[in-house]
Amino acid sequence: MPPPKPGVIPLAPLKLGDVLNGAFSTMGKYWKQLFGVAGALYGGAALVMAAAVAVAYSAVAHHMTELTSVGYGEDPTSADVVPLVIAGGVLVLLGIVVMSVVSGLMYAAVPAVLQEAVLGRPVAFGTVWRRAWARVLPVIGALVLTALIVIVPMMLLLVAFVGVIISVVAMDGGGSGGSVTAITLGVIGALATGPVATWLWIKFCLAPAVVVFEGQRPVAALRRSAQLVRGDWWRIFGITLLAGLMASTAGYFIQMPFSVLGIFPGMLGTASLDDDPSAAAVITALSGYLVAALLGQLVSQIISTTFPQLVTGLLYVDRRIRTENLGPVLAEAAGAPAPPPPPPPHAGGAPQE
Question: Are the C-beta atoms of 9 and 339 separated by less than 8 Å?
Fold first, then answer.
């Protein structure tokens, strides 16, 4: 008998086609919930950052004008430079905070939808929103811990290689031999840190799904992810890489028409500028192109973020089906007949002593 399929995947160990079909089916059946949450989050983040940029520009517009009017050979005054640096730093910090919250909500919302999609049950937009907010802090914690675990070893290795490169160049006195050696060591350093980061990233990639599906805390979720990935690292890496490439390609082709459409209002706007336009005039002239590019980036971001997370969530379900026999539990929750048990190891043959 084929395994039961109450939702988007069969309740059995998943093949590559099952994972991809499950992700596409979830996007097709639950597009209102997925794209609604993603659109609200990324659109809200864009509006917040646009408002922050407008406030910052209004606060430092005079200083920006003074800097652009500095003649050749003149040094700008610190009274004009410091406000711009402070405004830029505040915008960067605000962007980090906003994107952290948006990423945490997306990493929580997608598994929340997938929980019901696997069982074939409907889920309301409000329910997804409430579940995402309830798990956003642990999800952000898991993402931050994963980033630190991945970045810290890379930074330590890079610092070590940079120190070796500086020592080699200093000993050679800046000669060509030292430069070649330094470039070689730099390449070796990049090749050494890349695999380490990739291995760690795949090892903990299931942590957000663990937080949402099992209600685990960040540290426990990372341990659980490492446990589930053990023994199947290469398969998870290959499927994750394929999903990322597919999402990036789709996002690129989605963004292209918006960029092309934005060229025409941008050309019309810049044609009306005088010989010495102000920064405000340039921004106003390019507003049509900027709006089109922002819309294209928004749609592309929604697609390129949602699909890989769906694939990762399905890989989490697949690992639990394979290692913990989760299929019968899911079938019971969905009200479907339980999948048949696996055959005994020596069925059909002579008994062994």
Answer: no
